Amino acid sequence: MNTTAATLSGRTALVTGSTSGLGAGIAEALADAGAHVVITGRTRARGEQVVTQIESQGGRAVFVPVDFAAGPGTITDLVVTATEALGGRLDILVNNVATLVQPAPTADVTAEEITTAFGVSVATPFLLTGLIAPAMVQRGDGAIVNIGSISGIIGAAGSALYGATKASVHLLTKAWAAEYGPSGVRVNAVAPGPIATERTREFGDAIAPVLARVPSHRMSTVAEVASAVVFLAGPEAANIHGTILSVDGGATAVRDEPAAVTKLGNHPHPG
Ligand SMILES: NC(=O)c1ccc[n+]([C@@H]2O[C@H](COP(=O)([O-])OP(=O)(O)OC[C@H]3O[C@@H](n4cnc5c(N)ncnc54)[C@H](OP(=O)(O)O)[C@@H]3O)[C@@H](O)[C@H]2O)c1
Question: Cross-referenced CDD domains, in alphabetical order (predicted)?
Answer without folding.
Answer: SDR_c
